[in-house]
Amino acid sequence: MRLFFKPHSLARRMILLLLVGFAAIQLLGLLIHTFNQIKLLHTEEMQEFATRATILYRHIAQAAPADRADVLARESLPDGETAILTTTPPLAGTSRMAPADAEAIRAAIFSEGIPPFLHPDGLSLRVAGFPPHCVISFGLRAASALPNGLAPDDASPMARFLRTHPLADEWLGLTQDAGPPPDDGPDSAFAPPSDDGPAGPPFGPPPGGPAEASFGGPPGPPPGGHFYPDTWLTISAVLPPPTPWRSRGFATAFIVMTLLGAVMIIWAVRTLLRPVQTLAAAAEALGRDVVTAPPLPEQGPAEIVTAAKAFNTMAARIRRFVEDRTFLLTAIGHDLRTPITRLKLRAEFMEDDEQREKMLADLDEMEAMVAATLAFGRDIGSTETPAPVDLASLLRAILDDQADLTPARQEAITYQGPEHLAVRLRPLACKRAFANLIGNAVKYGDAAHVTLSPPHKGLVRIDIEDDGPGIPETERERVFEPFRRLETSRNRETGGSGLGLAIARNIIRAHGGDIAMLDATPKGLRVRVTLPA
After folding, report:
1. SS (H, E, C) 158-194
2. CB-neighbour burial class of residue 405 (10 A; exposed 0-12, middle 13-18, buried 19+)
3. How many other C-beta atoms lie within 10 A of the C-beta of residue 293?
4. 185 within 8 A of 92, measured Cβ to Cβ
5. Are strands 448-456 and 413-416 parallel, antiparallel or unpaired?
6. Across-strand partners of 125?
7. CA 341 remoteness from chain centre
8. Which residues have a Cβ under 8 Å from the Cβ of 269 and sit 6 or more positions away?
9. Which pLDDT does position 415 carry in this prediction?
């Protein structure tokens, strides 16, 4: 399907195609950058949240176990964040966090300078809900300060281990990863120990996949079993989705880069197509006037130089062909004048008056044809210089001359249009062309109504109407052929040679205009001439 708004010129099509392609590539690049920016902003937001959660954890972890709830209540939390103390991490309705996000949060937590004795006994990283909540659960130690802050009567598994295990001091600075729970729901691996046996996670990572929760633990299990934090600090927050495209920088960058690209594309296309425009102008000039058309400059890229040389060679051949034909035509016409003159002299001595008159009429007709042929050759090879001409005055002068030649039809010879209108023309050639057209209208149409219209869209229009029978539509183009006459309206007794319209069209087209024949209203023929303003 053809596009409704498809540009007509090659330059505009190339500019439109390149602009659309450039804008698409630019948009794709910005989208890739935006996705990377979204990922970076998301990581930064999670790290900032992890940093805030770590600071809160340090405040709570350094407080006495009995005071932790009060300390938490006095903490000022940002909008959208919540913090609670529970005996187990809230796993219901949550799922594992993406490995990349979990690594970013772990890096933020353990890069905040948490003293070794404050390392959490456990670390659970989960997500829940939509939009996703980031849920961080810290396993709190049993005393406010470790190891010196242990209460003598503390009977927790951790306290017993710290008092008895020989590697306790070294273990206080370690953080090891436990394996993932078996599913995304509440996990028995986080259950506290019971009297029936160990139910919590063992010390050290169990076999399995990547870590889902981090637990502080010694290199080996303590004597007598396993251990599990009895208090968890859970902090959750809804992280807003990053929207970098809403910033002014995104739109500004896209608009500025697109405009700069558009300027470069337009400049490049116009520069590349300028030789094509020059070629089109040279072809137009050659079509108007073969004899005086200037050659095409042979400069620029190699392809353009090759095309220019080929065009100039073609123009030279056409010019030589036209000159040879014109020379042959004028030479034959000039040479025929002498035998025609001799025949006229001999015809005068004929005794039969009727035959003498017929022969002299034929010779007069031949002489008129030779004169028209010579005029046709002169018009083709004319090198008259164009100059500003008052076209309105020129038309009125031709009409006045025609009215003097045919006094009986003065009333049918009229002019309508502006009093003055300057147009750059070759005066003698245009006078001859309009004289032929107006003369034909009076001779074969019994009238000549000339209408000169003001310039419109760079063209001047001249309409010449008559009251004759008109010309059939199938013959309107053929009458411009040299020596072509319509027998129904033109015959040799009228003196026509069949070159008037051909001469007129050659002259008008040499000026960059054209001649067309239309039906007049209510009858007759309208000859429309258009010329560059």
Report:
1. HHHHHHHCCCHHHHCCCCEEECCCCCCCCCHHHCCCE
2. exposed
3. 18
4. yes
5. parallel
6. 136
7. 72
8. 11, 14, 15, 18
9. 93
Using CA atoms, how far residue 320 sits from 8, 150, 254, 376, in Å, is 35, 116, 58, 17
The rounded distance, in Å, linking the Cα atoms of 221 and 227 is: 9
DSSP code of residue 197? B
- pLDDT digits over 476-523, tens only? 888 887 767 665 444 445 545 677 888 888 888 888 888 999 888 778
Three-state DSSP class for 196?
coil
Q: Does residue 522 have a cis bond before it (omega within 30 degrees)?
A: yes
417 neighbors 451 (Cβ within 8 angstroms): yes
131 backbone dihedrals φ, ψ, rounded to 5°: -60, 150
Q: Where are the alpha helices (DSSP H) in 63-204?
A: 68-74, 99-110, 157-164, 168-171
Residue given tokens 């007069």 in the structure block: 364
Note the pLDDT tens digit of each residue in 71-127. 898 888 888 889 999 888 887 888 888 888 888 888 888 876 677 777 887 888 888
For residue 494, the number of C-alpha atoms closer than 13 Å in the C-beta half-sphere is: 15
pLDDT at 383: 62
* pLDDT number for residue 462: 93
Residue 99's nearest CA partner among 43, 139, 38 is 43
Q: How far is Cα 277 from Cα 281, in angstroms, rounded to an integer?
A: 6
> Could you tell me if residue 176 is left (phi over 0), alpha (psi between -120 and 50 degrees) or otherwise beta?
beta
pLDDT band of 227, cuts 50, 70, 90 = very low
SS3 state of residue 517: strand
What b/e sequence results for 410-448 when a residue is b if at least 16 CB atoms lie within 10 Å of its CB, and e otherwise? Answer: eebbeeebeeebebebbeebbbbbbbbbbbbbbbbbbbb
Mean predicted lDDT score pLDDT of the chain: 75
Model confidence band, residue 252 (pLDDT cutoffs 50, 70, 90)? confident
How many of the other CB atoms lie within 10 Å of CB of 474?
7
The rounded distance, in Å, linking the Cα atoms of 451 and 530 is: 12
Burial state string for 221-260 with b = 16 or more CB within 10 A and e = fewer than 16: bbeeebbbbbbbbbbbbbbeebebeeeeebeeebeeeeee
Question: Whole-angstrom Cα distance, residue 15 to residue 21?
Answer: 10
For 293-303, write each residue's pLDDT tens digit. Answer: 788 888 878 88
> Can you give the length of the chain in residues?
533
Contact between 212 and 180 under an 8 Å Cβ cutoff? The reply is yes
Whether this prediction's pTM lies above 0.90 is answered by: no
When mean pLDDT is compared across 342-346, 430-434, 492-496, the lowest value belongs to: 492-496
Segment 30-40, tens digit of pLDDT: 778 777 777 88
Q: Report which DSSP code applies to 245.
A: G
Q: Is the peptide bond before 207 cis (omega within 30 degrees of 0)?
A: no
